[in-house]
Write a structure and sequence with these properties.
This protein has about 650 residues and is α/β, with parallel strands linked by helices. It folds into three domains: about 70-340, no CATH class; about 350-435, no CATH class; about 450-640, Alpha-Beta Plaits, CATH 3.30.70. Helices cover about 45% and strands about 25% of the residues. The chain contains 22 helices and 28 strands. It comes from Thermosipho africanus (strain TCF52B). Keywords: Membrane, Transmembrane, Transmembrane helix. This is Adenylate cyclase.
Length: about 650
Amino acid sequence: MKILYYLSAVLLIVYVLFLFFQVPFIDFFELKIMDLFYRIRGSVNITPDVVIVGIDEYSLTSLEAEKDVWPWSRHHYGKVVKNLFNAGAKVVVFDVSFTEEDETNPMYDNYFASIISKYKNVILGTYLINEKDTYQKYNEKIKEKLENNITYLNYTYKMKNFKSLDFIQPIEIYKVRPPILKFSSLVPSATYEIGEIDVDGVVRSLPLFFKELWANEMGISSGFLPHMDVLAVAMFKNADLTNLIVDFDKRIVEIKDLKIPFDLNGLFKIFYYGNNIFKEISFYDIETGNFNKDIFKNKIVIIGYTATAKGLYDLRITPFSNNTPGVYIHATAIQNMLSGDTLIRASTWLRLLFTTLAIIYVLLFSRSKNIKVNILALLSVPLIFLVSYMLFLNQVYLDSFFPVVSCIILSTTNISKNLIQENKEKKKIKEYLYRYVPDNVADYLIKSGKLTLGGETRNIVVLFSDIKGFTSLSEKLDAKELVELLNSYLTRMSDIIKNKYNGTIDKFVGDAIMAVFGAPISFEDDIERALKCALEMRQELRKFNSENNMNLDSGIGIHFGPAIVGNIGAPFRMDYTSIGDTVNTCSRIEHLTRELPANVIVSESVYKLAKEKFEFIFLGEYRVKGKSMPLKLYELKGEKNV
């Protein structure tokens, strides 16, 4: 387990470093999992407050047929605004810029200005000049015109808890390029820029404010300007657009009862609703009056380019599509703000805690050496995704990529380590297991994975068998004959012990055999099998004598009691054996077969447990070495006829 603990510590340290340094590689995969959750969830059912008027291919070709090609004359926009408000629209937002005068006829600008002046609830979008060097290269007349057109600064945020601004890193731009003064002096204007996209090129957030450096340099204002979508929400809520508040401590923009959150970069996290959420009506149909007026009643209407508007590219990548028009992103952001929806990214501490708990889960299931239990650790992967997905459905994204990777690394490392160790143990035990225990017992041990045979105390039946007068026999035979005779005898006795009665051959000591019943696997009939084995060994000895014209005799001692069983020896050489008082006592009992008129002698513990099925003769009480009290011993005569 030490290697897993060390590996877990390394993984957590690496994760802390990733979080601290905001490694893009990790964030890339987290964001892709987030997108996957969006697709799994699919679209949600809402009643949107936003409707889209699309500048689409149909509108472009229809006006082209009327001899007006892009960019359109401003009177078209005036007609559309008039028709929308007459249909009950509450706010009209332009995701289109009006930074130059009408190229066809300046009078069309006057018409459009008169319309927006009449209906008021119009917000004009515009773009940004990001770099100071770029602005410095502008024509002086253009710069003078822009610097006299600063009505957009009327909507600069009022700041609360300004000291906390030190912890905020807002997106800084040099200058807003507002709509022409003829329009910007009449209605609010603000940037429609999406801002910085995520590392994988997907739009998942939108800035609630930008810091304009030019206004700050000139000492005109703080330069913290709201986004177009914020102004749209404020206008819809009938708020004072000149008194919008940004709280840098709570990280919220306050619009009446709405609290719109932002992160350290001033970004609002968009919560996407899915496809086909917002109704889209063609610009040309609005201008010609070919639409259902009920659609726009008390709605925010955004006018902007759609995916079919050839040549007017304003497409972005979102979790649902690689070609999402910017106007749909604005619609989603506005609806999010109105509904209080946003996708909150779990805090760093919560992410670290979640990863730690996932690792602890794996470690708990890795404590076992059972591969099947170890595999349960891999359940951490679907569990992590499930927890993260359930939180996602509640608009909280809890990072899951690194926890999953960590759990897979730990689980596979542990399973691989245990498989290697198990294979080593199997190989090692196979070297002697099949030689000493019955085949079915050996197969069971290996298949069940119960190969850790060391260090336990259990009740076993010990059987000692020895040839009487073997020393004198060995003097009569040469070495080759003696070895052949002994091997033949031990093979026949071992076959009975091992294969007929499922006993474990503990060891051979010269002509002596030590066998154990009840280890490594214990059965309910260990004593019965040991006694039957002893009787058959005596029968087999008579056959052996007859076949080899010999007159060998053997003594057998049987005892039952607790013993320590396990792998005993040195790391380079060990045997599975049994030690303890029960083994020593059994050896002493077997030696008494040379002194008493009995060939199979059992202890009182065996007699008490087997007297119902076997016949015994009481031999008396005898003292043996190592025992302070005499032992009651019995001769085994045979099985009872039941």
